[in-house]
Amino acid sequence: MRRIIWLLFCREWRLAWRRPGDLLNPLVFFALVVSLFPLAVGPEPSMLRAMAPGVIWVAALLATLLSLDGLFRSDYEDGSLEQWVLSPHPLELMVLVKVLHHWMVSGLAMVLLAPLFGMMLALPASVLPVLVLTLLLGTPILSLLGAVGAALTVGLKSGGVLLALLILPLYIPVLILGTGAMDAALQGMPVTGFMLWLGCLAVLAITLAPFAIAAGLRIGVSE
């Protein structure tokens, strides 16, 4: 089973490098949204600092959503997804590997870029670790929940709008906790509670989402 996981992971990397646009689009979108925001509202540091948590988290959420529609689409079109479903190996584990790869090429890159954009939005240095930690805990949740919607809409020709309608309500708790932790850090208040809740949601998503994704893919392939 470890060999299957490794081969699948290597396959995802090879496919990703063959389509560099799929790698760059979410990152470019994230960078553009955060970079253009100061030009729209003005360079006042206090205003930028107050709005930075919401701006960064909404940009990360939308960038993740942008990359989800094609998460299983190419595998569905070339027949690979049907082979996954018929394979004797656990489909839940295979989709978890695919979502992990998706997070590494999109969510992890946003986490690494976040301190730079945080400084651009006048966040103090003491808040940057909180920003990185909230995104490190929150972006895997966004990818896993988004993969559930992508699995449910994989058989639809234009499922992007439906995907957004299905997933955005599920993203709201993560958005509230992520921005709440940063707001608390800006005010000098403890952020432990927010981090614990984000950690709990991450554990639940990693534990339960693969089963929902696998069920959605089986439904999509059988139709």
UniProtKB/TrEMBL annotation:
Domain of life (superkingdom): Bacteria
Places the protein is found: Cell inner membrane
UniProt keyword annotations, A-Z: Cell inner membrane, Cell membrane, Cytochrome c-type biogenesis, Membrane, Transmembrane, Transmembrane helix, Transport
Main location: membrane
Topology within the bilayer: Multi-pass membrane protein
Transmembrane segments: 21-41, 47-68, 103-124, 130-154, 161-182, 194-217
Keyword Iron: no
Free-text function comment from the UniProt entry: Required for the export of heme to the periplasm for the biogenesis of c-type cytochromes.
Family membership: Belongs to the CcmB/CycW/HelB family.
Annotated protein name in UniProt: Heme exporter protein B
Organism: Halopseudomonas formosensis
Source taxonomy: Bacteria, Pseudomonadati, Pseudomonadota, Gammaproteobacteria, Pseudomonadales
The gene coding this protein: ccmB
